[in-house]
Amino acid sequence: MGFDEKKERGETSNQRGNKLKENQIEEKGLDELGEKIGRQMSEVSLNGTDQEEEDDDQGNKLQLGPQFTLKEQLEKDKDDDSLRRWKEQLLGSVDFDSVGETLEPEVKILELSILSPGRPDIVLPIPQDGNPKGPWFTLKEGSRYNLKFSFNVSNNIVSGLKYTNTVWKTGLKVDTTKEMIGTFSPQPEPYTHVMPEETTPSGMFARGSYSARSKFLDDDNKCYLEINYTFDIRKGWATP
Predict the structure, then answer these.
(1) Which residue ranges are recorded for the region named Disordered (predicted)?
(2) Quick one: average pLDDT of 219-225?
(3) pTM of the model
């Protein structure tokens, strides 16, 4: 739901060539460590184009290694003290009896809220079909806000969980947001994540109705929740 402008930095051909040489040297030393950490311990670089952001689930999949259960994760590389300690720290106090031998993680988005200074939180009901009827919420023009969500992780580690959101006005794309949330192990208590603060646009042309699509995906581009919705920007907040 962000409206901040994107900024890109250009590089000269010489700079790109030098970086390529440096990366080739570094990759040789990192290959062995990368194989040890495995698919569940990876995170995704999120620097992509607008087209990549729209088509994450259509052909841009990473070629990841085989999946492992949580028990297998701890058994792997158990002679490597640094990796073992890091995995134990990530997994924390996981009850392995409750997660069993499941390969696929499960993420459930429990609640979405909009936080704005000096106002009660706007708690957004999540419909089962992912398509709220009518405007899902109304924001005041020129107002500061944060998006907050809570979620549960079960079965296995979810790697590279991320949030994407694309906004259109009168059929034209006006904003694309992508936020890396992180890698999480299963636990009974929900996790909470607050997005960076943003400000809604203001002025006659900013006011009106918008359509948007939000997704929660992981490294495999498995989508745990997709919401297609509309919202309004008005002169004032909606009255309860």
Answers:
(1) 1-81
(2) 94
(3) 0.65
